[in-house]
Amino acid sequence: MKREKEMTKDSVCVVTVTYGDRWEFLEKVIKSIVSYPNVLEIIVIDNASKFKIEEKCKEISEKINVIRFERNMGSAIGFNKGIEMACKGNTEFIWLLDDDNMPEEQGVNYLVNNYRKIENETGVDGGLALLSLREDRKEYVMSAEKGNAFSFFPKENSFLGVHFKDITYKVFKKITSYLNRNSAEKSLKKNLSTVKVPVAPYGGLFFQKDLIKEIGLPNKDFYLYADDHEFSYRITRFKKGIFLVPDSKIIDLEKSWFLAKNQGFLLSLIHSQSSFRIYYSVRNRIYFERKDLVTNKFIYNINKFLFLFILNSLCLIFKKKQRRELIMRAIQDAESNNMGVNDLYTLK
């Protein structure tokens, strides 16, 4: 596809990464966005999928560019390459989507219009990002309900999201959630407001491509997991932040692994059958927390002790000695800055 030198105002390049046998999801996503007038280009990073993605995409639209890797390089390298390619094009904005993120109608228009509005309100030119709402990401839904994200994301000095100040709150939350089992369905009927959030997943993140000149591309050494939070947190840390736009909704065609059984992150670490998911989730998240979120080492170490106590207790209860060893190995690698691909845990 020919790339023009001049940037087209309000135009969007969608970047997505696919792998394995996920064409059934990707096809729905592409068909839901390809007809949008302001989506001038769709870049698909094919991480060694089982299908001939390029041939299938050509049958749908000439807007689609496919870059194929012959082995699965993970999300960090995939989005790194996709965003790099998008920055060379003539669109003004980049919209990141997972291969199972299907936007609702007019989703991209809400983003473009709100970007201009928030840009004017904050007086910043190009230093912010927006995020579409994914309704299975409850921390974002609750942030939009309350108009404040502070209570729903890990605090500074947390260890894998565990902070001693949150214990009472989380127990109370579990009890009220049990007593109000139908509230999840009702919650989405409440008024949702645009709200500033500290981090974002790749799926739904929307920004001007010039922002990349200031914050850089995703860190390839993360391989997969937590690379999106580390990348997006640079916007929070160095620029004006990330604003969740509830009117721009995305339907997740498949739930994330730690959401599928509604166990929460910690129990998923214990029960998941995937060693590579556990290893990279733990290693990368700790590396990110240590690099960007630790302001008080004493409090951080208290929270680490608390996490390890909970971990040891759960592994003892569920007889998961090997899982404990895997998690401890991931913690040690994070604390030793041993990043990149670990040959013991690679994608197929």
Please characterize this protein's 3D structure.
By secondary structure, this protein is of the alpha/beta class. The chain folds into two domains: 8-137 and 193-252, Alpha-Beta Complex (Spore Coat Polysaccharide Biosynthesis Protein SpsA, Chain A); 156-185 and 257-348, no CATH class. Helices cover 44% and strands 18% of the residues. It contains 13 helices and nine strands. Strands 1, 2, 3, 4, 5, 6, 7, 8 and 9 form a nine-stranded mixed sheet that branches. Helix 9 runs parallel beside helix 11 and helix 11 runs parallel beside helix 13. It is globular and about 55 Å long. Mean pLDDT is 90; it is low at 184-188.
Can you summarize this structure?
The protein has 2 domains: 8-137 and 193-252, Spore Coat Polysaccharide Biosynthesis Protein SpsA, Chain A (Alpha-Beta Complex), CATH 3.90.550; 156-185 and 257-348, no CATH class.
How many strands appear in the DSSP assignment?
A: 9
Oligomeric category:
single chain
Radius of gyration: 20 Å
Distance between the termini: 31 Å
- Beta-strand content: 15-25%
Q: Helix count, per DSSP?
A: 13
**CATH H-tier superfamily of the largest domain:** Spore Coat Polysaccharide Biosynthesis Protein SpsA, Chain A
Q: For the report, how would you describe the main beta sheet? A: 9 strands, mixed
Identify the CATH class of the largest domain.
Alpha Beta
Structural class: alpha/beta
Task: Encode the helix/strand succession as letters.
Answer: EHEHEHEEHEHHHEEHHEHHHH
The coarse overall form would be globular
Overall pLDDT level: 90
CATH architecture of the largest domain: Alpha-Beta Complex
Question: How many domains make up the coordinates?
Answer: 2
Bin the helical content: 40-55%
CATH topology of the largest domain: Spore Coat Polysaccharide Biosynthesis Protein SpsA, Chain A
